[in-house]
Amino acid sequence: MYVGIHTASLPFVFAEARRRIIMHAALYSNFARSPRHIEALSTALTKPGFRKLHAITLPFDPKRGWMEEFMHVLRPDYSLAQMEHEFNSSRDFLVRLAARHDGLVELYETRAMPCMPVIIVDDKILFGHYAHSPVPAPQGYWFSVTAPVEDMLDWLRHGRIPEDATPTQKASLRFVADCDYAMRNAKRLFL
């Protein structure tokens, strides 16, 4: 358990990635302002054998039914103009990352309300929670579990959870499945 995502040493976790990173969050503007995060992601993306970084994000669409409330959940004290800036910063960061690492970054734009922020690095799953609170998700509790993510992605592709899957694997699968669902049902951005 981590109190605030900053205590999870995320730049170190990113830099240590060997195969895959999946980021499922509404905003990446904090990453965009962090040279440590940018460098760590670039380190992972330039490793031999690294396969893919998948980033799932939201478009700025304040007219969407749930979006105005959700923007308040993301940044409780921000105005609509400030939120638009955060979304633009987030999108610019992802687009630049994809441009610098051609073919290794896949961007997805979902219209579905995210359930929770999830970051998967190889077999490590980090997850937080969104809440109606004056304290935003990056400063909340974050948790980490280890699970056979590649196997779980195969289970999802084949539509079958093995009968011998443990309760812990099934609980971990929920996070992997949420990311997989978002990627399958989102608009893929081709840059």
Automatic annotation (TrEMBL):
It comes from the Bacteria. This is Uncharacterized protein. It comes from Oleidesulfovibrio alaskensis (strain ATCC BAA-1058 / DSM 17464 / G20).
